[in-house]
Amino acid sequence: MNKSGADSVSTAFEAAAAKYAEQEFLHVPVESCRGYSAHALTLPYAEARTRVEAIAARLRTAGYGSGHRIAVALDNRIEFFLYFLALNSLGISIVPLNAAMSTHELSFILAHCDAALVLTHEGHAGHVGGCVSRVAALHVVTEEARAFPAAARPPVAAPNEAALLYTSGTTGAPKGCILSNEYFLEIGRLYTGLGGYCRFLAGDRLATPLPVTHMNALAVSFMAMLMTGGCLIQLDRFHPTTWWQSLRTSRATVFHYLGVMPALLLKAPPVPQDPVEGALRFGFGAGVDARHHAAFEARFAVPLIEAWAMTETGAGAWITANREPRHVGQRCFGKAPKGLTYRIVDESGIDAAPGVVGELLVRQDGENPRRGFFSGYYRDERATEQAWAGGWFHTGDLVRVGEDGCFFFVDRSKNVIRRSGENIAAVEVESALQAHPDVLAAAVCPVPDELRGEEVFAFVVLRESGSPTLENALRIQSHCLQSLAYYKSPAYVAFRPELPQTASQKLARAQIKGLAARALEAGEAFDLRNLKRRAAAVRE
Q1: Which CATH architecture has domain 417-536?
Q2: pTM value?
Q3: Which fold has domain 9-311?
Q4: Can you say whether the dihedral through the CA atoms of 193, 195, 201, 204 is positive or negative?
Q5: Taking Cα atoms as reference points, which of 319, 375, 7 lies closest to residue 185?
Q6: Of the listed ranges 15-29, 45-59, 299-313, 490-504, the one predicted with least confidence
Q7: What CA–CA distance (Å, rounded) separates 136 from 70?
């Protein structure tokens, strides 16, 4: 048990509910729940505890308990957090599901995670239900408290597992990160104890549009409010036109962001809904474009605090620019905190000279180097040990450290595209492309995007039967939308007679990235970005 007296997410919630019973715990602005509610939704701690206890009682009656996993596709709704807390109180691990994924993607996760039950709402029942098949039982959450299907699968999770969170891996297939209760508690303690610009006050209200299927919303913002008695303002997603209005009406004091958000907000003309100076103390996030950082702070009078962490590192390796010097506009994410040991290494794994760019390796100082990190990849011990090769966690991020000890983000060494906060494995998109009958070979890489940070660029080598036309580019993208979430599909398609390779017959990734930049500049790629929308996703 930790210093706060909590040994799990649910016991931390119980303590908060007892202390802050009448204070607001969860809030959804009306702009974020119009599809299922005519008015904003607010839930005080005491009422949330009552609802959590009722859900837990029904699950217990159905035979669910410690060691079970339950997959949840409830979007960014209040019900997601209530079910998370109810599951946690019974020792059940949650598997958050992104219902925007294709049938192929969801089916893989459900088959891999060994969930005993899948929960969703009526809007996703058809799509999610089509992925369940014989893998697990399905339960559609409604206002009526119906009985759950009886538990039929045996427990599979370790006693302290709180969540199994899937992230895109460089090998293509998503990996399930095992997250313990201590993982969540460590994040809550670290974030609320940062100080500096990130000082939390009694009654804080934190707004986030980030998806609950990611570590930021699942653990960072949620645990910060839970552990301080604050109110989590959960938006369905980022709406540039109503952003400031939502924060104003919900009385937000802090917000979380991704790099794409400042770019869109700066493009909008000034309106009365812009923030009142002093109402918001700070924004917390990562990846703000260096060109926009200072401009955003000057216009909106809110500091954007850049931080670095990964789902795998949790609070074990978390770096924040919460104090000066922040080096605004230079992609700085702060200095290494006490207890974090790091190395910057070159491609051979040799320590780089001071100030030289290299891959960031991290671990905790002391007897437990993995403290605060994830517990491992589910059903993939080999990948876990590879990530921890040599006793250091290999982040895949290229950074440099300045003379004052500040870290500066440079690039990713892993072949991953970071689009609007989503990590997209290039090899996963390449596999989808190569399944098209007209495609002989494909190479995918990131290209800069003004609004989304990066976009997916695909080079395609056609078979003799194919021709390099816009019509074929559209068919290829449509094919990808059949098996991938919409945001993973190629935004640009360019045709080539062959792909550059290394001496070992592997794709020459660095050269391909340069070719993509030149193809964009020369107008030699088909621009299909306007078709990458949620409604455009065609599911099997």
Answers
A1: 2-Layer Sandwich (3.30)
A2: 0.86
A3: Rossmann fold (3.40.50)
A4: negative
A5: 7
A6: 490-504
A7: 9
